[in-house]
Amino acid sequence: MAGSTYGTLFTVTTWGESHGSALGAVVDGCPSGLSLCENDIQKYLDRRRPGQGKFTTARREKDTAEILSGVFEGRTTGTPISIIIRNNDQISRDYDTLKNCFRPGHADFTFDQKYGFRDYRGGGRSSGRETIGRVAAGAVACRLLESVGIRITAYTKSIGPISVPDGEYDFTQISENPLYMPSRSFSEEASAYLESCIKNQDSSGGIIECQIEGIPAGIGEPVFHKLDAALAQAVMSIGAVKGVEIGDGFRSALAKGSDNNDAFTFDGSRIRKRTNHSGGTLGGLSDGSTLIFRAAVKPTPSIARPQHTVTSDGKEIELSIHGRHDPVIVPRAVVVVEAMAALALADLLMINMSSRLENFTAFYYPKDSKERRP
Amino acid sequence: MAGSTYGTLFTVTTWGESHGSALGAVVDGCPSGLSLCENDIQKYLDRRRPGQGKFTTARREKDTAEILSGVFEGRTTGTPISIIIRNNDQISRDYDTLKNCFRPGHADFTFDQKYGFRDYRGGGRSSGRETIGRVAAGAVACRLLESVGIRITAYTKSIGPISVPDGEYDFTQISENPLYMPSRSFSEEASAYLESCIKNQDSSGGIIECQIEGIPAGIGEPVFHKLDAALAQAVMSIGAVKGVEIGDGFRSALAKGSDNNDAFTFDGSRIRKRTNHSGGTLGGLSDGSTLIFRAAVKPTPSIARPQHTVTSDGKEIELSIHGRHDPVIVPRAVVVVEAMAALALADLLMINMSSRLENFTAFYYPKDSKERRP
Amino acid sequence: MAGSTYGTLFTVTTWGESHGSALGAVVDGCPSGLSLCENDIQKYLDRRRPGQGKFTTARREKDTAEILSGVFEGRTTGTPISIIIRNNDQISRDYDTLKNCFRPGHADFTFDQKYGFRDYRGGGRSSGRETIGRVAAGAVACRLLESVGIRITAYTKSIGPISVPDGEYDFTQISENPLYMPSRSFSEEASAYLESCIKNQDSSGGIIECQIEGIPAGIGEPVFHKLDAALAQAVMSIGAVKGVEIGDGFRSALAKGSDNNDAFTFDGSRIRKRTNHSGGTLGGLSDGSTLIFRAAVKPTPSIARPQHTVTSDGKEIELSIHGRHDPVIVPRAVVVVEAMAALALADLLMINMSSRLENFTAFYYPKDSKERRP
Amino acid sequence: MAGSTYGTLFTVTTWGESHGSALGAVVDGCPSGLSLCENDIQKYLDRRRPGQGKFTTARREKDTAEILSGVFEGRTTGTPISIIIRNNDQISRDYDTLKNCFRPGHADFTFDQKYGFRDYRGGGRSSGRETIGRVAAGAVACRLLESVGIRITAYTKSIGPISVPDGEYDFTQISENPLYMPSRSFSEEASAYLESCIKNQDSSGGIIECQIEGIPAGIGEPVFHKLDAALAQAVMSIGAVKGVEIGDGFRSALAKGSDNNDAFTFDGSRIRKRTNHSGGTLGGLSDGSTLIFRAAVKPTPSIARPQHTVTSDGKEIELSIHGRHDPVIVPRAVVVVEAMAALALADLLMINMSSRLENFTAFYYPKDSKERRP
C-alpha cells in the first residue's frame, strides 16, 4: 500500500519517477469492447504537456503514450491496459545541487523522513510528472463515460486574484487560451498577472472548477464512499491541491437552510431540482443535476527568488531554484482534475450496477431471452 | 461495497438506521493490548448526543455503547471490536407523512433512485444518526493515537457569518459552550444568531476546524492515498460536509509562492518549518507540524418554513417539516470530524510501519535479542 | 486488517468470541429488494447448531439470529444488514485450567505469539463458534443466489476411511442422517466408526464435497481472483480445513491430458462440455458445468485422551481435554462450506456485471426506454 | 477488479498478453532500502523460461527483465517498481486456425462468454506467459523475505505416477535436473515417463511441493485471511493448479485426532512442535515450524493427439494442436509457486507489524531515543 493504486472495480496503478526511464499506468477492470487507440490517450497527455506556452516549463517532453496490453484489434479486451510513456528530456544534473537540501513547499523533507532517502532527481515520485499516469488512465475512463453520455469539463476558474465570475463563462474560450480559462478577457488579465509574477521571480495559485453533465441519479455509495467523498479524495490526491468543495461549498457554511435547499419539481417527464446549491449530490449520491466542484491549487513552490531552508545535515542556506518551472500549476492541472474525476466516477458507475436486486436478476436472466445466461 | 467499511489496516464497518432497533460499528485491526472500556466510547458518544441544549433536537436518546467482542479483561485482543447502541426514542409516526415526498436537501430522492425504495423513517441510513457508529469507532482510534502522543482537537470555527478569528482562540472555552466554539463572546453572538434562525423557522451552516498535534513526519502514502486525500475523503463522507481544505486551503489559491512556501529551519535538535501555510503536509505526507484542516457544513435541511417539493408520483406540494431538528448541524458534527480524522490517521500510521526495510528487519530481528522472532 | 472482512462488492464482516456476550456479522453491499427475514437465516444456523445428535457437542445453544438493520418491511434496503446471535450457554470455568497451556492442534500458542495474550475462554475468536457469523451471512448470500437459479449442495463425502463412492450418492438422504451423508448405509457405517473413536477418546477427520448448479459461464476474474482461487481462499479460511481441490483435483496430477481434457460439444441450443474433469472452471472462469469441489477437514483437536504439551511458561504436562466436543467436525462444517461458497460466488457475480461494455451501456441506457437513467 | 492486482500492503499488478508487445508487473508497497537489481529478477525468470530442455517449448524467449522505476542507486525507494519484459518470439499465425474454435482444457470458451471476444493469439491473457509478471514480482518478494531469514524451496514432488517419497528427498538435486525433482533417480524415471507421453502425443500432470523455513510464529490474520487461506488463493490462482493442501492435507481427513495433533514441547530455549502434521500453521497463523504445502497441477491441455471440440458457431470438429507445447507444466510452474508463496507471505509479514500495541508504540517512540518519531 504505497498508495499507487486507485479504485475498486475500475482501477488504475501508476508508476514512475520524474527522471527515471519511463512513467506509466496500468488500468484494470475496464469493460471489454471499448474502442481505444493510442491517440485517445495522447489527446489528454498533450493537454498536460510542458513546453506549450510561455507559462509552462521549457522542458520539451513529447510524452508519447504507448499501449502495451489490453487492447486487441482496436478494442479493450477486459484485461489490464498497460500504458507507458518514456522520459526523454531529463537533465538530471540540474538537480545535483538540490540533492542534500530540502526545497520549501516540496516533498524532499517528508520523503526522506518516510523512506530514509529519495530519488532526488526532479522530485522523483513526488514530481508533477507523476500525474502523467493519472492522465493516461483518466483518458480511458473518459472514453468509458462518454459511452453513457457523461461529459466532464474542467477549466481555470481563477489565477491569483483574477477570477471569472459565475455568470460570465464562455466555454468556447477554454481551449483558445493557454490558461484554459472560460473567458478571453479574464485570461488576458490573468496572463498579465502571471507576467508580473515571473518578473518578481514568484508564482501564483488558482482555482480549477469542474462540471460533469449526464450523471444518472443514484451514483455513489452511502456512508464512507459517497460520490462527494470519492471526488474529494481523488482531487485532493493531486499534489498541489489544498482544498475541494462541491456545489456552494464553503459558501454554504454562510447560508441559511431556506436558501441552501434546492426545491424539487416535476417537469412533466422527470423530477428535478430547481436550483443546484448542492452541486449535484444529495446524501452522497448523484441527484441528476450537473455535478460541480472546485479545487484550490497552491502556487508553484519552485521559485527563482531566494528562499531560506536547511540542508539534510541541518545547515541553514539561502536557495534560489533555477531551471524550468511554470509560474502557475493550474493550467496543466486542469486535465489532471478531469482525469481524477473520470476515474472516481467510472468506478462508482460500475459499482452501482448491482445496487438493486431487479437489476441483478435481469442481468442474469435477460428479459429478451427465455434462457438464463449464458 | 455499499460503502459502509472504511480503512485498510485499522478498519471500521458501520451499520444501522435512524429508526431501526440499533446502530453500531465493528472495528477490525485494532492492535491487541489497548486499554479500552465502554466509558472510553461513551464520552465521545455523549458529545454528539441530542437533547443537550437549546440548539439540539429534543429527541432524548441515551445512546449507550455496549462492547460485544474484542475486549478481554479490559484490553483489546486484536480481534474485531463490535459496539452496539440501541435506539430507544424513535417516534416513527412523525415520518408517515414524509413517506412519499422528497424533502429538499435530503437523500430521499437519491436513495429512491438508487435502491428503488427506502426506509423512510427518520431518513433511515442517511440520517445523521448514522454517525453514531463512526463516533464509537473513532473513540477507539483516538485511544490508539493517544498511546503515541497524538491529540485531535476539533471545534466550531464559525456559525453562519459569526466566525472566531484565527488569533482569538481560547481552547479552554470549547467545552464550556453548547456550540463548541473556542471563544465565549463569539459563542454568545452565534447563539443569538441561531435564535433568530429558529424564530424565522430557518437554519444555519458553519465551519468546523480541526487541529492535530503530535503526528510524526512521513505519515501518508504518496500518490492516491496522501494524508490530505485520506482526510478529505474521511471528512467529506460526513453527510452535511460540502468542502474540505487543509492549511491555507482556498486562501492559497490567492497567494504567491513566496508567501505560501514554508521555510525550513534547524532548531538545534530537529528540522522544522518556520510557518505552516501547508497545514502540516508536504507531498501528501505529514511534515511534523500541526495538521490543520477545515470542513464546511451546510445548514440543516429540515426547516419548519414551508418549502416547495414533489411527491414520489410527481405531485407538487408545499412542505413544512416539524418535529425535532437542530437549527445547525455544526456543534454535533464536531466530534464526528474528530472521529473521522482519527480513523484516517490510525490507519495511515499502521500502514507506515513497513515503509522502510530497516524497520521491517528490525521488527523481525529485534535488536535487544539475539534470536529472530518469535 | 485483522482479517474479519471478506469480499469486494458483497462483503461480510464477522465478529465475536466463543464466550463473549454475542457473535454476529455485518453484510454490506447486498442488493436492495431481496426478500429476507430472520427465519431465512435461522434455517442455516440450525444446521450448524450444536446439541443435535450424538456426534455433536452437548452445549445447548439456541443460536437465535436477530436482524438489527438493513431490512425494511421484509426486504433488504441496500444498506448493511447487521445480524446478531447472543451467546447463552457459556461455561467459562471449563476453560480456567486451559488458561496457561497450549492445547495441541489449537490456536492457543499462535494467538499468544501474535497478540501477546488471548481470550482463552473456549478458544475465543479461534473457536468454531466464529463460523456462526459466516453462516448467517452465507444464508443471505444463498438467498441472493437462489434469485438467479443457483443452488449449492454440500454434504459429507467421507468420515475417516468411510467414503461414499461417486456413483452411489442419494441426495435425498443428506438431511436424513446426522452426518449429512448422501447415503443411508455409509452414514450408518460412519456412525459406527465414530462410536469407536469416542470409545477410544479420539476423533476423526473427513471430507466435505460441494456441488453448485446454475452458475452462468464466465464468472470469476482472470489471474489472481479466479473463481477457483476465490473458493480456495474462502473454504481454506474455515478453521479445520487443510486442503481444497476442484474437479478431479489431486487426481488430475496423475492424469494425462487426453483423459483430463473435457471435450466441447454443441447440443443444438448451447455449447457444453461432455465431461467435467475440470469441475466447472476453465482459466479461472466458470464454464457452465456443475461446479464441484472438496475440502479436507482435520480431526477435532480436542480429545479426551491424554496428550503431551507445555504451559505458557514452558512446563511439560499431560493434558486431557474434557468438556463438550464433537468427535468429528465435518457434519457441522457442511453448512459453513456452503456459506463460504455462497459468499465467494455472490461477490464474483456482482463484480462480473461490468465485464462488458455492452452490458454497461445497456444498463445506463436501458433498451426499453428512450431515456437514459434515471 | 479484472483481478490483476494482488495484496494489501505489498501489492503486485500484472499485465500483458502472450502475443502482445510486452508483459510486466508493478510492485507497490515494497519497503525502501532493499538492494535490488535486474539480475535479482532475471534469475527467477530464467527458471520459468521456455526452451531450456526437451520437456519445455521450443519457443525461444529471452524474457529479459527491465526495471523502469522504484529503484535508485541500487536500492528500492519505496515507490512502485515497474518491471517490463518484452515479447520477442511470438509466431501469431500459429494461432489463426484456433481463432474460432474452443480448445479443450483452455480458457477460450470462458473468455468469450465473459468478454464477448478475446485476444486469441497464444491464449492471450490466459496463457502461461501471464505468470512472467508474477515471477518478476515474486523475485522482489523473495529478496524481502531473505532479509529476515525466510527461505522458500519449491520442487517437483511427482510427475504423473512417478512420485518422490517423503523420506527420499535430496535437495541438492533440484537444480541438477530439468524437472526440478529432489532426486536423481526419480527424475530419470519421470523423464522416461514424459518421453512416452510425447510419443503418445499426450501430456502429464504432477504435484509441486513447497517448503518455507524461517517464518516467525503468529503470521497470518485470523478468520478470512489466514496464512493457509492466503496461500491457497495465491497458489490456486496459477492457471493449471486444481488443488492445494497444507501439511498432511487430504491425508488428515483419514486421520484420528491422536495422530494428527502435534504435541508441543519446550526445548530449553523455545516452545516448538514435536511433529508437523499441521504443515506449519495453527488457527491460520504460522506456528514456527516449517511451512509445507502441495499443489496439484493438471496435464498440459494442448496435446497433438486429435480431440473433439466445437467452433464458436457450434460446428463439431476434430482438433490437433501442433506448435510448441510442454508435455508437462509442472517444472516451469515450480518457480511460479515460489513466487506466489513469497507474495502472499511478504504481504502478511507487513500486515502483522501492527498486531500488538507494544510494537506500535515502540515504533513511534523508539526505545533507543528519548524523542518520539521523527
From TrEMBL, chains A, B, C, D:
Residues annotated to bind FMN: 125-127, 283, 298-302, 324
Reaction it catalyzes: 5-O-(1-carboxyvinyl)-3-phosphoshikimate = chorismate + phosphate
Entry's EC annotation: 4.2.3.5
Binding site for NADP(+): 48, 54
Cofactor note: Reduced FMN (FMNH(2)).
Keyword match Transport: no
SUPFAM superfamilies: Chorismate synthase, AroC
Domain of life: Bacteria
UniProt KW Lyase keyword: yes
Recorded metabolic or biological pathway in which this protein acts: Metabolic intermediate biosynthesis; chorismate biosynthesis; chorismate from D-erythrose 4-phosphate and phosphoenolpyruvate: step 7/7
Record-stated family: Belongs to the chorismate synthase family.
PANTHER family registered for this protein in UniProt: CHORISMATE SYNTHASE (PTHR21085:SF0)
HAMAP family according to UniProt: Chorismate_synth (MF_00300)
Protein name (database record): Chorismate synthase
Species in which this protein is naturally found: Claveliimonas bilis
Gene responsible for this protein: aroC
